[in-house]
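Before drawing any conclusions, I looked closely at one protein, both as residues and as discrete backbone shape codes, quoted below without any editing:
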Amino acid sequence: MIGSLINIPLKRVENVSKAPLNLHLLYGLNRWFTPKVFQRNEMIIAINVGGCVVPLALTIYQLVRLFNSGIILIPVLAISINVIICYHLSEIKAGVGIFLPAFVPGMVAALCGLILTPEDPAPIAFCAGILGPLIGADLLRLN
């Protein structure tokens, strides 16, 4: 949880169009506070430690463990399915970022794990649940 408070900025991109940023609306607090609208002239591309670095390290560990045991095609297939679904369901919202329905990647990853490896679905589901949104919703939407 502490890692989710740490962002590592990678790049600053100047926005061509200025989008209003209403932080109260983003967190659902617009009923209790007067909305403050800011204009952002730039976009910061950053990596969150708790949301990217730590889960990615655990996923790499699981993938190495799976590949060493001879299971290669099943994790790649599950990750690919989740990447495709996350890419098609994600969209860029001005002033917010990349929007993806919260439970979809986890449910798709769990189903892939249960269908592809019913005897031990957890490592497959974990890898697909982490890499699906990171690749499908984040990396493929960077342009």
Remarks:
- Helices lie at 23-26, 49-68, 73-89, 104-116, 122-138.
- Strands lie at 7-14, 20-22, 37-39, 42-48, 91-93, 97-99.
